[in-house]
Design brief:
Structural class: alpha+beta
Helix content: 40-55%
Largest sheet: 6 strands, antiparallel, barrel
Strand content: 15-25%
CATH architecture of the largest domain: Orthogonal Bundle
CATH superfamily of the largest domain: Topoisomerase I, domain 2
Oligomer: single chain
Length: about 525
Amino acid sequence: MKILIVESPTKSKTIKKFLKGYITLATYGHLLDLPPKSFGIYLKNNTIEAKYIPLKGKKRIIEIIKNLASKSEQIIIASDPDREGEMIAYEIKMILPNTEHTKIKRIFLHEIIPSALFEALKNLSEINESLVNAQKGRRYLDRIFGYSISPLLWKIKKNLSAGRVQSSVLRIIIEREEEIKNFKKEEYFQIYLLLKGFPVKAILADKNFKPLNLSKEKLEEIKKEIFKIKNLVLEKIIEEEKKIYPPLPLDTENLQRLASQFLKFPPKKTMFLAQKLFESGFITYHRTDSHNINKNFSLKIKDFINQNYKENYFSFPRYKKEKNSFEAHEAIRPTFLQKPKLSGDFLKLWELIFMITISSHFKPLQYLETKYIFSTKSFYFFSINKSLVFDGFSIVYPVKEKFLPKIQVKEGEEFPVLDFKIKKIETKPVPRFTEASLIKKMKELGIGRPSTYVPTIEILKKRKYVIKEKSFLKPTDLGYKVYQFLKENYPDLIDLKFTALMEKKLDEIALNKLDYQRFVIDFWQKLKLT
């Protein structure tokens, strides 16, 4: 008898459809964790020891796994291919007697389809201790931070909490709020002319042919003279070919942001839907910081594009490694190119993933930008027209840019002025963060990782440190008090560079470049001295 263990009942159900000869069962997430009502971490002989206990409601599934393991010839664990999944695999190992450990093997499924599973079963491996240590390191850091700082916050209000990542993210939200409060509005004016026989407005420009932003006083000084202009002479035509590149294949942050933009889905909903799509075999693993696409799948996309569009549209997607990316997985993509039997929001998200994956394999859009320079004795004006040369990826992905036919005019032509317009422009403060734009900021700063973006924001809302107004995140008075306390007493621990450094250190642990015990102990000692 062989057992295959996954963490999700949906994943188990999907695998059962095509895997015969195995008992497949799900752990329903983690089996063990640190105790909820005590610290659970101890320092003994300069080594950290941790107490793990069964999570509430997990004793029955633990007994089932133990019973089946004692009768099995092989135990294969196929939990998610990340640190969280590796920790679940390790927890299965922890609950089994040492006599069963030789039976345990690990496989990594980045897409739950027959070919991927059968290939994985040919390449059995061991549990990756480095990934386990990285997850232990994260869990221990968060427990140490929370248990050390949270009781001090109870002077403000009972049962408040602080978190290593959440406190830094709270800082980001509050600093944005302060920027908005301190913003001072400014206003300026632009003048543009409408010309007879010329379809694009002519804007008053400086000597570098950039829009001239005028104060109210300057506007009053020159507008009478400008209003006397009867004709503009086209002095020069400047042409430049430009490109708009297709979107990159999706990582987790891009998926959450584009689902918010196109579908109005909050990140939490997007990740719930993506989890189900992955477990059901419709998309690849959805927690990733990589933009890479499997080359064999790219070749399938090439055939799809050549059959459904034109052969000159295909191009392999651009490679871009983000500054803080770990790149343990492929980008998020469909597992096949036929429309699946899905409905509702599941279908909407799959179609978005499909659209972006396909469009990432198109050539760029190309257009001709033409700048027209007009002059009088005292003033310069310019107009810009953009004309499409090659539509590229825009036939499958909407672009905001508007294109007009090329204007057929020549240098030296004279155009009568039909009307004068004055446009008032008021500067605006930066907006509050949406959940999607906050996640983008977290990614840029290297704070958190794909698996922690949404949970971090959710805990801030749950603790009532921030509230959601319309689609924007606003700090509460309680959030301000918590932040102020941390800023005054533990400034290093909410330093954004320090928090990002901690994430990099966890990545080094995952790559077996750093000892997690030493790393956690150093942090613990720093906290005691702060």
